[in-house]
Amino acid sequence: MIFIELFVPRGTLDGDRRRRLAEALGDVTRLARGEDMQDGLRQAVGSLLQVVVHEPEVWVVDQGVAADGAPRYVVRAHVPGPWRKAVAGAVVEYVTEAVAEVEDDPRRPYREPVVQVQVVGVAEGSLGVLGRAVDSAAIVDLMNEPRREDYEQGRALLDPVCGVYVVLDESAVTLERDGVLHGFCCAGCRDAFIEEEEKAAARA
After folding, report:
1. How would DSSP label each residue in 14-80?
2. Do 115 and 155 have their domain in common?
3. Domain count of the chain?
4. What is the tens place of the pLDDT at every residue in 14-55?
5. Residue 137 falls within a domain, yes or no?
6. Range of the domain at 88
7. pTM here?
8. Rounded-to-integer distance, Cα 71 and Cα 13, Å
9. Structural domain includes residue 131
10. What is the C-alpha to C-alpha distance for residues 100 and 104, in angstroms, rounded to an integer?
11. What are the pLDDT digits (tens) for 112-130?
């Protein structure tokens, strides 16, 4: 579950730009930094990604109300605590890119501190869905549910990095090591797996 809140002073974005920015922030492919993701997994993650836009009437910057021509953006992304460190960099990058696309001057967010991104880790057991508190493992279970039968029938593998089921089709990211086939939700998880194996070998 990733919940993204966009705060922007009232009236600084017209309806079209506000909608485009919200849709860009809710784009799972952008969040994954363009990495290939199986359709089923993309849909599962997308169903748990929500974006809300707030337009406060009063917005104070440097002890004064923000100037009409100087919109500021604060984006707060709430993610399960154990995911925060892993996703923070990608969230900051894709949020800044999305804002740059709706700004009249697309370089402004890289020149001036007008975009502030906060990636907030939600404590384990502090998220709720289906009438119960859930932790990050339970969220992964929700994402896996549509592919559980594939896993049980041997048509999917468990990603050893993030724990999601990866259906073995032409789009699957896989790696064979010591005669064992591993499946990954994306190239990033595969690379993290290889890096961890190399660190473990160096320590041995």
Report:
1. -HHHHHHHHHHHT-HHHHTTT----HHHHHHHHHTEEEEEE--S--EETTEEPPTT---EEEEEEEE
2. no
3. 2
4. 899 999 999 988 887 777 665 666 665 666 666 678 899 999
5. no
6. 2-122
7. 0.72
8. 8
9. no
10. 8
11. 888 999 999 888 888 888 8
